[in-house]
Amino acid sequence: MRMGMIEALDVHKTYDRGGAAVQALRGASLTVGAGEFCSIMGPSGSGKSTLLHVLGGLDHATEGIVRVDGVDLASLSDDDLTRFRRRHLGFVFQFFNLLPSMTAWENAALPAMLDGQRLSKLKPRAVELLERVGLGDRVNHRPAQLSGGQLQRVALARALMADPAVLLADEPTGNLDSESGRAVLTLLRTCSEEGLTVVMVTHDANAARVGHRVIDLRDGVVSPAKSPAV
Amino acid sequence: MTGFVALHLRRLREHPGRSAMSAGGIAVGVALMVAMLGLFGSFTSGAQRVTDLSGGANVEVSAPNDGGIDESLVDEVSHVSGVKAAAPLIRSQVSLRQEPTLLLGFDKRARSLGQNAVLAECRPKQLPQRPGIIVGPSIARSRTVAITSSTGTVPIEVLARADCGPAKKVNAGRFVMAPLALAEQLAGRPHRIDTIEVVAQRGTRLSRLTDAVDRVVAGRAIVASPKLLADQARTNTEAFQQGGRIMVVMAMVVGGFCVFNTVSMTALERRRELATLRAVGGPRRRLLLGFLVEITLLGVIGSALGAALGFALGSRLVSAIPAVFVDQVGVRPSFDVPGTLIAGAMVLGTLVTIGAAILPARAAVRVPPVEAMRPEGPAESSGAGATRSTVATVVGVVVLVGGTVVTAAGSKNATVVGFGTITVGMVLATYGIRDSVARAAAVFAAMFGSSGRLAGASVERAPRRTWATVTAVTVAVGTIVTMGGVVDNQIFTYKRPFESMKRPDVWIGTAPTKNIPVNLRFDDGFTDRLKTRVPWIGEVIGTQSAYTTVGRDRILVQGFDRGTAAPVFANTSPHNREALFEVRHPAIVVNTQFAETNHLHVGDGVDVRTARGPMKFRILEVVNVPSPSQTGTFGMDRRWFERAFGRTGFNFVEAYGKHGINRTQLKRLIDAAVTDSPTRAYTATGDVQYDGVVSSLKQTTGIFQAMQVAVLLATVLALANAMLISVVERRREIGIVRAVGMSRRQLRRMVLVESLAITAVGCVIGVLLGLLQHRVGDRAVGALVKSAIDYRFVASPTVLGLVAMAATAIVAALLPARRAGNVNVIEAIGYE
User: Which chain A positions have a beta carbon within 8 Å of B370's beta carbon?
Assistant: First the structure.
């Protein structure tokens, strides 16, 4: 077994919804090894997005331990956590979340830009990433000029910009047609094969099978391991 | 600049309309600041330009009034120990083409004053060696001009024209320069001058020198710094400057809310974007910096635009300054805004922009990164918990009450602070109850059917935006109701003592009805000639009036004959009216402004410097008759006046017709009889003269009414901005309701109702605020002007405010409503 890049131990997350406590995670535990491509599946309301948020440091666990690349996320201040996300994690969102006023390459360069680097110096790397995801001819296009699949590939380029150790994807194919979805999944798989740890939340069983392992989440708890994916 | 900041700036370019409206709000505030403060400051700088003619003088000996001082005093002063040089100057008012014109006269001794801009740069080097004058740049070219003084009209050759920059700023370019002797002749006062400019020997202590000169002058003139005229100008425009500052504060508040709204809405619109930036590792500080750089640029652009607009506005307004203002200061100003004021206004405008943006910007960058993952953006929260809201309300009420007390106290600078504090209190208090404010707007909107209910849902869902827009409306309505009420009460109170002016059948003055005749005079024989020429005249009463310096203040002094309808005399008790002419010792009746400025009471003595030396006048009575000079006025028996100031004749005359002739007929006869008067005579019937005074009163307050338009303009921008952003923000929702069958018309109606609902709530709070401020404003302005104002409720400003705001709501909704109606359903549903 490879060393755990992501370790979650007995993670609980409770939300306050209008005075009522809603338990999204009830002691979820998992370990994802370095370079592993892990898919998290589960029905609606099972807590899979919450788990991804907690693993990505977007949200804090109410209880339990979350370690990413050996760092206990609960021990980080908000500023440190932000820096950690910027330098160690890459995110791919279901709704792409690109900035409409920026071109494709500027969107891709965003994490490094947020690190205070000059835009002009970032262009070669951003263009290289866009070429890698097959958008070499779309670098100066704005989001409004791109298709859904292209938007998600720009988002993937953005996620890779800071050379992260972990890539977290929330329903990355949920808004795409099947062909575009397949292309994005192939790219994620390639990233994993190149050593990147990938955690993907999806409700699509076919998409989940692209990963090395599928984790089934039910009522906020990880179910016993299923057979590894193909 | 990092790329991220550069990208933020790109936002401004991508939303030109929104950027323009936000910048516009600030621009209006800054424009008002530059125009108003520049305008009133121009009086001081206008007077300063005239005193600059004194060059390097250290002490100035000036005539107490326009009667001048004897030229022989120059020799006496020049022999005082410590005096290096003493130069006589003529700085008098004459009439040229029936316009008041500054007459300047120098001789060789003026060289001792060193260089001054007008003499050094503007005086032509080669001048013909014959008697003549140099005219200022505002005087139309001609070979000769006729100069009228109190002793008659003298034609004189124009030798040259001083047409350069500095000359344009001396009495707005309306002056003539002549050698001293000629200038004395033109002023109609041979061997009398206006000032002696004294240059001290090196090492002489100025206070000691001033005392020494004062001893020699022995009360025959005023001995002070050459800056006295500028100081008097500052004092005499103080109340108006304060009023201007209040309006600037109000315009800035509205402009600030315009920015607050824009940033709040922009932040809401960009909530997902900001959450994404936070999710991918954007530090809050950097995101905030991006926001602030964007907003700072907006502030700088708006402020620069405002400064330019303000300059243009002020330049136009300067020519519309009421004549009574110009008389009381003694110098016609040209719009002269110091660079520091423009820079200060721009800095303040930018700071207000940043200040208004910082709260919503900080709230925006605190967005939890996890929200980036949510498919639907969250609704705007009201921004603070119940405890903070309660605290805000309580603090707001306390601040409001504190501001009311401070304003009512009516101390000079406290007035602006007080009005500002009341506004801040109102802002805080309403912020605390913003949910209720939004609910009230929603309830109002719901009265307008299904479109109204949708509009209501929109305002209730966004309580902070609703509150911010309501506040802008509140401030505008509050300002209209306050200013309208105070101005109405001021005119109502101040015109009452002038009703005596209706009594004479005809007034004959040396200046038009809009001016107080102070400089030019009819000669002593004028009244007798008039009676001879117009046999229908039963009685003629003459009055003298002049500005004089008492202490350090410029005061309007009048010399009365028995029975005059001049307001100060007419408002004196019958007993003192008689006493004024009976007492052996000189006595005066003073107005409240004079008494309060100098802390004097009935029976006190007033030391007045006259051309014949110091005189003491006993106060017989204090009357509440406001004077154009904020430092006050007093009147005395004309015989004492003539003795004190060495001045004969009349500045205005009242004529009463015999039985059987009406006023119009009498005026016609008098007009025919005075055509050959050496000093031009302006006639008006009693009613017209009174109307002229009331119109002057209205003119002096009219400037504040004009400023309300600017505040209203800022409100239109604030409201339009809020509505526009509301439409942009709800594009998806608009697409959905269009998809399920809402017509374009219903949509437009929805936007209009939303605008009206917000405006209605703002109007209710604004009227309440305005009524409160009106009550305390009367006290504050009365204390500021040193003449009490009687409070009375007036409905017209409230009606005007409501009508103006209803129109504002409709105008502000036009563009957003059109945009809402034109939303493409397919695009909007897919809109993120």
Answer: 53, 58-59
Distances (CA, A) of B467 to B29, B39, B383, B627, B765: 21, 34, 11, 43, 11
Q: H-type helices in B318-375, by residue range?
A: 323-329, 339-365
- Interchain CB distance below 8 Å, B373 and A158: no
Q: B667 near B685, Cβ under 8 Å?
A: yes
Helix residue ranges per DSSP H, B15-164? 16-51, 73-78, 117
CB contact under 8 A, B3 and A106: yes
Residue B150 vs residues B62, B187, B678: alpha-carbon distances, Å: 20, 8, 8
Interchain contact B832–A (C-beta under 8 A): yes
- pLDDT score at A36: 92
Interface test with B, best of A25, A60, A101, A200 (most B CBs within 10 A): A101
Q: What share of chain A is helix, strand, coil (3-state, %, to 5)?
A: 35, 25, 35
**Whole-angstrom distance, CA of residue B583 vs CA of residue B9:** 78
Beta strands in B183-313 (DSSP E): 192-193, 195-200, 222-224
Per DSSP, the residues of A122-146 read: HHHHHHHHHHHTT-TT-TT--GGGS
Crossing angle, helix B284-317 and helix B16-51, to 10 degrees? Answer: 50
Could you tell me if B283 lies within 8 Å of chain A, comparing CB atoms? Answer: yes
Each residue of A174-226: pLDDT tens digit?
878 888 888 889 999 999 999 999 999 998 888 898 899 999 998 888 886 55
Q: Rounded to an integer, what distance in angstroms lies between the CA atom of residue B550 and that of residue B554?
A: 6
CB contact under 8 A, A110 and B277: yes
B529/B556 Cα distance (integer angstroms): 28
> Tokens representing A215?
């984790």
B11 touching A, CB under 8 A?
yes
- Cβ–Cβ below 8 Å for A102 and B7: yes
Q: Which residues of A touch B381 (CB under 8 A)?
A: none
* Degrees to nearest 5, angle at CA A30 with A27 and A36: 160
CB B795 within 8 A of CB B488: no
Q: Which residue has the tokens 């995670």?
A: A25
Token pair for B108: 């060789």
User: Residue B286: closest CA among chain A residues belongs to which residue?
Assistant: A114
Q: In the A/B pair of chains, how many CB contacts fall below 8 A?
A: 99
**B2 to A118: CB separation less than 8 angstroms, yes or no:** yes
Q: Indicate if the pLDDT at residue B216 is higher than 50.
A: yes
DSSP helix/strand/coil, A120: helix
Cα separation, B92 vs B149, in Å, equals 10
Distance from the Cα of B722 to chain A's closest Cα (Å) equals: 22
Phi, psi (5° rounding) for residue B322?
Answer: -55, 140
Proportion of chain B above pLDDT 70, given as a percent:
93
3-state secondary structure of B290: helix
pTM over 0.80: no
Of B284-298, B641-655, B659-673, B706-720, least confident by mean pLDDT is: B706-720
Residue in A closest to B1 by C-alpha: A118
- DSSP helix/strand/coil, B148: strand
Residue B379's pLDDT band, with cuts at 50, 70 and 90, is very low
Q: How many CB atoms lie within 10 A of CB B70?
A: 17
Closest residue to B14, CB basis, from A79, A85, A101: A101
For residues B750 and B813, what is the distance between their CA atoms, to the nearest angstrom? 10
pLDDT tens track for B645-703: 878 889 999 999 998 899 999 999 999 999 888 788 999 999 999 998 888 888 777 76
Q: Do B370 and A162 lie within an 8 Å CB cutoff? A: no
Backbone angles phi, psi at B784, to 5 degrees: -65, -45
